[in-house]
Amino acid sequence: MQEAVHAVEGFLYPNEVELQWSILIVLYPYITGLVAGAFILASLERVFKVEAVKPTYRLALLTALAFLLVAPLPLQLHLGHPERSLEMYLTPHKSSAMAMFGFVYLWYLMVVLLLEIWLDYRKDIVQLSQTTKGPVRLIYKALTLGSSNVSPGALNADDRIGYIITVIGIPSAFLLHGYVGFIFGSIKANPWWSTPLMPIVFLFSAMVSGIAAVMMLYIVTTWLRKKPLDMRCVDTIAKYLFYAFVIDFSLEMLDLIHRIYEADESFHTLDFMVHTRLFLSQVILQIILGTGVPLACLAATQLWTFSEPVRRKLYFTSGLLTLIGIFAMRWNVVIGGQLFSKSFLGYTSYKMEFAHREGLLAAVALMILPFLLLWGLVKLLPPWSEHEAKA
C-alpha cells in the first residue's frame, strides 16, 4: 500500500490508488481477438474462395478453437469465484454487456466453431474411427456422433451446411470481439476509452493479430514437420495482413487526430501519460516496433521482389512484432486507462505481482495453455491435407 501511495501524484480518489483491472483483463481482449482474426482468415477460403490460403484453413479453425476455450479463464481468475459466472445464465441481465457475453460465447463456441469443425472433419473422423486402435478409437467413435455416412451426397450436404455456418460465423466473430471494444468505448467517465471508434479499432486489431498468429503458426509448424512451405499461401496471408493493418493503423490515427483537434480538458492528462508512464508501451512497443516496423516490412514485400528465404524472415518478423504491438495496444487501453484520476489531477502506477492469482505467472500460464490445447487438437485432428501428409 505504501508503494502505491508513493507512486501517486496530485489528487486521486481512494478507489483509484489501486487498479481494479489487472493484466488478466489485458489478456482477455487479446485472446478473443486472436479467435476472431483466425476465424476471419479461415473464412477467406470457405466464403470468399481465396484458394491460396487453403493450406491454413483447418489450422486457423483449430487455432480459433484452442484460444476460444481459454478466453473466459482470465475473467474467471479475476472474478475469484468462478461459480458466480453461472449466474449470467441462470438470471440473465439483458442490460449488461458483460453478462450478455456468456450467451455470445456459447453461441460462437457450440453453434459456430465446433459445428463447423465437426462438419469439415466428419469424413476424416469416420475413417479414423475405423482404422485406429486402442483408446483413441473410442474418442473418434464418440466424435462421429453416430453419423458414419460418408457418401458423396452426405459430404456435399456437410459442405453446404458448413458454408452457411461460416457465413453466420463472420458477424458472430465480429460480435464476439466487437463487444469488448463496446464495453470500453461506452464508459463515458474515462476519456481514454470513451470514443465511438473503440469497437471498430478493436475489431480490426483483432483481425490483424489473428491473421499474424496463424501465419506464424503455419511457418513454424511447417518447419517443425520438415515440409516445404507454400509461399503462395504465405504471400497471400501477408497481403491480407498488410491490408487489415493499414485500415487498423488509419483508424487509430483518425482517433488520435480527432483527440488532438478536439483538445478537451482531458487532453493534457492523456498527453502527459503518453510521454511519461506509457512511453515504453505505447510509443516504443505499440507504435514503433509493433506498428511501424511490421508495416514497413509488409509494404516492402508488396513493392519489391525478394527471395523466398528473405520473404519468410520478413513475414515471421512482421508477425511476431505485430502480436507484440497488439498486446501493447491492449495493455495501453486497459492499464493506461486506469493510471490517471477522474479529476485529471493525479496519477498512479501499476505494479504487477509474480506468483499471484492476477500476476505475471498466471498470465504466462494462460498464454501457454492455448498452444498446448492446439497441440492436442492437431494430434487428434491433423489439419494437413492428405497429399501433404503423405509427402
Question: What are the segments in which pLDDT stays under 50 over at least 5 consecutive residues?
Answer: none
Measured between the Cα atoms of the first and last residue, the distance is 61 Å
Measured as a percent range, the helix fraction is over 70%
Radius of gyration, in angstroms, nearest whole number: 22 Å
The biggest sheet, with number of strands, parallel, antiparallel or mixed sense and barrel status, is: none
Oligomeric description of these chains = single chain
Which class best fits the helix and strand makeup? mainly alpha
The H/E string reads: HHHHHHHHHHHHHHH
Q: How many strands in all?
A: 0
Summed over residues and divided by their number, the pLDDT gives a mean of 87
Structure description:
It is a single chain. The protein has 391 residues and is mainly alpha-helical. The chain has a domain at 23-186 and 359-382. It has 15 helices and no strands. The longest helix has 35 residues, at 97-131. It is globular, with a radius of gyration of 22 Å. The chain starts with a helix and ends with a helix.
Can I get a quick summary?
This protein is mainly alpha-helical. The longest helix is centred in the first third of the chain and has 35 residues. The model has no long low-confidence stretch (mean pLDDT 87).
